[in-house]
Amino acid sequence: MKTKTLVSIACSLSLLGSFTAPAKAQPVPSQATPVSQNITIPQDTAVIISFPASVTVDVGQKKDYPLTVPLASAIKDEQGNVIAPENTPVTIVLQPSDGGAKIVAQSLIVNGKIVAIKASSQPIPGTTITQKRANDKAIENGSVWGRIGGSTLGFISQGDPEQFDRGAMLGSAIGLVTGLRSAENIRVVQIPQSSVYVLSLETPINISIR
Question: Among 54, 72, 84, 195, which residue's Cβ finds the most Cβ atoms within 10 Å?
């Protein structure tokens, strides 16, 4: 009788030893949620731009001339981190003002996004010149606007020849229209090639980056 009892206990222990408890489910690690970072560019930050080609505009027509030019110096935040590196595209307008013009920046590229800004230069004085014959001036203006148009689109497209040619054609068309509509004596502002201008921010820039 004792032998049967011992055998029964041994069999029970054997079965318990072979029993495997179900594995406890392990938590799946969740992906980190991107955190937005708020960056402030102080109002006293200088926006320094350069002109890759010479520009001559008729400020007597009282209209803005939009252009895209590169940053001549990087823009940094309050901690000194580079927010917009040198050569970042900046959209500007040449705005007639008191017989001359001033440069007004409207936006720049930050981390692949267009960020609206408002920064302006000191007034650039204009000069009065005697206009050439309409056809001669049209050809001259076409050359000037062709260079700036081609340079702008070529710059944005990283030197793509097709984009450069398209920009040159668009610039020439603008120049032809400007030349044909000009008066005999006109008030112009001339900006030489490679000129550098310092623009002052009117308000700080707050940027949210993920």
Answer: 84
Edge-to-edge strand ranges of the sheet holding 127-130: 55-58, 185-191, 127-130
- Tokens 């392990």 identify what position? 26
Among the listed residues 122, 118, 39, the one whose alpha carbon sits nearest the alpha carbon of residue 84 = 39
At 111 the pLDDT is 82
DSSP-derived secondary structure letter, 124: B
pLDDT in tens, 175-210: 444 444 544 788 899 999 999 999 999 988 888 766
Report the C-alpha gap between 119 and 50 in whole angstroms: 14
Taking residue 1's Cβ as centre, other Cβ atoms within 10 Å add up to: 5
| Strand partners for 196 | 50
Place of tokens 């032809």: 176
Which residue ranges does the chain devote to CATH 2.40.128.260? 37-125+191-209
Mean pLDDT over 40-65 rounds to 90
The domain covering 37-125+191-209 belongs, at the CATH homologous superfamily level, to: Type IV secretion system, VirB10/TraB/TrbI (2.40.128.260)
